[in-house]
Amino acid sequence: MDLRQGIGLRRLGTTADEFQQDLLSSLYYRRGTTVESASPRDAYEALALTVRDRLAERRARTAAAHFASNPRWVYYLSAEYLLGAQLEQNLLYSGTGELASQSLKVLGRTLEEIEDLDVEPGLGNGGLGRLAACLVDAMATRDIPAVGYGIRYDFGIFRQSLEGGAQAERPDDWAFQGNPWEFPAPDDRQTVGFYGHTEPVPGSPTRKSWVPGEIVLGEPSHMLVPGYRTETVNIVRLWRARGSEASFDLSRFSAGQYAEAVQEAVRAENISKVLYPDDSTELGRELRLKQQYFLVSCSLRDIIRRFRLRNEGWDDFAEKTVIQLNDTHPTIAIPELMRLLVDEYGLDWDKAWSITRSTFAYTCHTLLPEALETWPVPLFERLLPRHLEIIYLINMFFLREVEARFPGDSDRLRRMSIIGEGSERRVRMAHLAVVGTEAVNGVAELHSKLLRETVLQDFADLWPAKFQNVTNGVSPRRFMKLANPRLSDLITEGLGDDGWLNDLDRLAGLERLAGDASFMERWRAVKRANKVDLAAGDPDSLTDVMIKRFHEYKRQQLKLLHVITMYHRIRANPAGDWVPRTVLFAGKAAPAYHAAKNIIRLINAVGATIAADPVVAPHLRVVFAENYNVTLAERIIPAADLSEQISLAGKEASGTGNMKLALNGAITIGTLDGANIEIRARVGEENFFLFGLDAFQAAEVQISGYHPREHYDRDAELKAAIDAITAGTFGGVGREVADSLLGWDEYLTLADYRSYLDCQEEVERAWRDPERWTRLSILNTAHSGFFSADRTIADYAARIWRVAPVPVPKDI
Ligand code: 26W
């Protein structure tokens, strides 16, 4: 079959009858059941398969077009993907929403009840994982030939529930009922080695052969990533660890040692068993490094297999391949490609290094020192002996380059070395990522600047051109069209068509409607209807939203001090003309992060105290929405009036929730941190509630010695708030939180308190003027088009990947 002559596939029907026929045939032939006995699950699976077929048809044409054009490929390596629920998205991207709800009638089902069965794959922690999902969506929408590689964890991010106001974690067996959206591809399985030793190869100075001590199999399954309003359908390929055939010990089994017989297989499968729930502190667990190498080894072999389908030799490899490392988690890919090229394909070191270096690019997503991964050399030596040897060689050649450029500067050599010589020798993955890549980028202007001027300054001095910025973005399809259909319809009406969904800068056209009384009325009505749907509190109250992972640098504790101060103010003046406010928190804390879990407990204790207080409850309500995930974000964001982005300046690399909230008409109260700065610059300083120290002032305060108690002593309201916690006012909960604030307050919560409170009064003044507030809201949406993931991908494509779109013809 010559693919250049088209896929030779009969097209699937687009009429209601044809769709219904396909739905019924999925039910009969693939679910093996009948209309009469079909369960809700049968209906869901049959619908999913019917919709999937339509995307798979586009996928086949995409693959044919890509095969024919042999393009330059983008491979996105990420340990995390927060793809969100798939059914609604795939109905939208296949244009079959209406057909589906019609056809389900024959089964006596509604789309709403079926959608509840569509579990989201929680294969990520937070920002980094969701960004990966928004970016692969935008790559497909922009017709960029790309594959996302990841790990198919059996257990995703834990399910959060509140027990007595405290976070409880339960395993997330997300695919327990199966997952209709994935295509297992066992014939593309790969073999991955661990442990063992290396042996010299006679006649070759650099070449070695690695004799692994343990072998596991990597089995892929892929999920379709459709582009919006285009034919392209890319894939995300997720690897699952399996025991090799040899791992089942029949002799032990027949000797009745059943557990031992399968222990090796179990050990193997443990590699992709569960996602590590930490999103800011590296724990240095061996299994995590095994996960990272497993992902990388399977993906690189698959990338080479794909390259070899259309290309000879290695000369074109770097020309046809760019691999983006999503933070340091897949950085072991650099020595792994070197190992494959030198040891398995026999290239000489220099050739292999020039290919490797020009194939990889690295995105850094954090500034927190504790989040920068370093691995103990002994662990590396035991688990990946050959890779450590290669890292030593890379480091040797690198330090020679530094020495040549900065002769005699031994301190600089020690600072820059990939091997940290501290108390324990450690491999610095961020240093390896910078040395082994062509481009390094931060995810917002300030973040990229701080990377160049602080954590990676030495490298920026050596290779200034290597350092770039690519400000994050979000998918307008998921976070506007799917999450907020009411607002999307109103915007489409205001702009005349819905082309803005693929060209978000067109939102600027809404500015002229920011004074139009009837449009403003309808804008308010949309927000109110979304708040009624959310049912989190009084829909006429100011819905004040803080939704993100819990971390002390994000300062949920500052929001809490504001709530406690309001509680005191209202109790001090019950008859006051208070702005009714609903404060909505949502987010998970890493299970071992006790300080963050204490803040969650205190939030719920304060919320309970307020709810039980007849004086305060009519004016103030605290809600904690359990188990924050992509689906819940899609429900909360459209209902938000105020977006809390209050991290200590210089700590939040970018933030993406801030972008989603601004695009949905929420107004930001925030610091000059991460992408807040760019949001404020684009929506207008007068349309943004700014407070607090900026990154340089904050650094100054910390350098010059910070004494949180001084702020406590000189601010009566602050003192009262903290004393209330210490006094046990809120169910006796929160002592640890108060102590840490008065003790060291690492993230300057008390230093920014007064400025924050004053700014919140600004917010209330604006809220009291609905015309003004609606205008602010419309202008935030109008000027946030820049934060589309499509623009982010256009930046990566132009400035880092040097790739061009490959349109997929409708008729191939
Ligand atoms: C080693 C443990 C670990 C795991 C995950 C350390 C660090 C991470 C991630 C990098 C943390 C993360 O999600 N960072 C967030 O990335 C978003 C996307 O770029 C940014 O918008 C957020 O500001 C950043 O905190």
UniProtKB/TrEMBL annotation:
Domain of life: Bacteria
Function: Allosteric enzyme that catalyzes the rate-limiting step in glycogen catabolism, the phosphorolytic cleavage of glycogen to produce glucose-1-phosphate, and plays a central role in maintaining cellular and organismal glucose homeostasis.
GO BP: glycogen catabolic process
InterPro entries: Glycg_phsphrylas (IPR011833), Glyco_trans_35 (IPR000811), Pyridoxal_P_attach_site (IPR035090)
Cofactor names: pyridoxal 5'-phosphate
EC numbers, comma separated: 2.4.1.1
Reactions accelerated catalytically: [(1->4)-alpha-D-glucosyl](n) + phosphate = [(1->4)-alpha-D-glucosyl](n-1) + alpha-D-glucose 1-phosphate
Hydrolase keyword on record: no
Sequence similarity: Belongs to the glycogen phosphorylase family.
Protein name: Alpha-1,4 glucan phosphorylase
List of residues that carry N6-(pyridoxal phosphate)lysine: K660
Short name of one Pfam family: Phosphorylase
